[in-house]
Predict the structure.
Amino acid sequence: MKLNKIYSAVLISLLPSASVLAAGLDRSGQSITAFLQPGNYAEAGISVLDPDVKGKDRSGHHVGDMGDDYTFPSAAIKVQATDKISLGLLYDQPYGADATYQVDGSDFSDPTLKEGTKVEVRTNNLTALIGYQPTANWNFYAGSVWQTVEADIKLRGAAYSLLSGYNIKVDQKQAYGWLAGFAYQIPEIALKAAVTYRSEIKHKANATETSNLAALGASIPATGHPYSPYKPFLSTLGYKESILDATTPQSVNIDLQTGIAANTLAFANLRWVHWDQFAVKPELLAQASTFAKGKAQNLIDYSNDQYSVTTGLSHKFNSKWAGTAAVGYDSGAGNPVTTLGPTEGYWSVGLGGQYSPAENYFIQAGVKYFWLGDAQAQTGGAVKADFTDNHAMGYGLKIGYRF
């Protein structure tokens, strides 16, 4: 059942869009399968997600599609420096968010400003790896991770009460983490198993926050108004520059595959991400929400860890063509969820194909359909809307080359 080198590159990578939608801010799935390929290998890919996320707010208004399309690239290179030492460099965008609420009369838009709530979160990840292969079966690896995070978020509408008009911009700043793992393989039967741990990464980034509360305070008379005693305090809530603490979570990936028949592989990917107790707490937002709602409000938070699994079959039809079918499940990261990403996990099904014009390179394409889990969107600890019966489409394209 030994497979040729180019076919052994199929694995789960035949569905490059496999992890474009996941719990919390998770996007890429942080796969290292490219580093585990035999010999010298390079790949580049792009994934696209087209979500359709609608709901109904507590006022009875329909919330129009607030999920923005997004595209993110990935790339990897692996060099077998000696019989026992391998080196790798992987690039991906592991976490992110894209959402824009329409100005449609819902509690998430401001008709005066003609703006809806909007969120953009971007990350970049560069992983440098070194592996040691004491035998043909074992591979032990570790490495360092360079990561950046930036964000631009605007809260608009009655759902946020006096916090409507709040903005935060987080400047891009780098931070560092690490990963370690091991893999075991029996090439004769296409058996491969890998376990990879990634550390959390602590960020300290420059953040600029603004709100409408200072303008509100300026319009309040010195006496005779319920907010008059707070007039001096409100004047401090219009603008703030601070250092924002945020920690991207630790995770574990388990990748499995085995040959089950001639030219046929079964595979599975299991992933755990430690979202439990994850929270982003900007200073001005905490002060403003304490005044407006009586308690400090987090910008983003999650209550549960994420568990996900993708499993399926890959089959080689001939020397040039192969295909994959897969199903997936993601638990989500707790419900109610933030209004900035109102879905709770998913079920998915995907199909992929690989064309190999020559022995040393291939082109892959994949498509995946997601049934998104129903979710209640909350802000300030209160549920503001229900999002049900939503879906998304994911697309991916990848090229790989052996040298």
Remarks:
- The chain is about 5% helix and 55% strand.
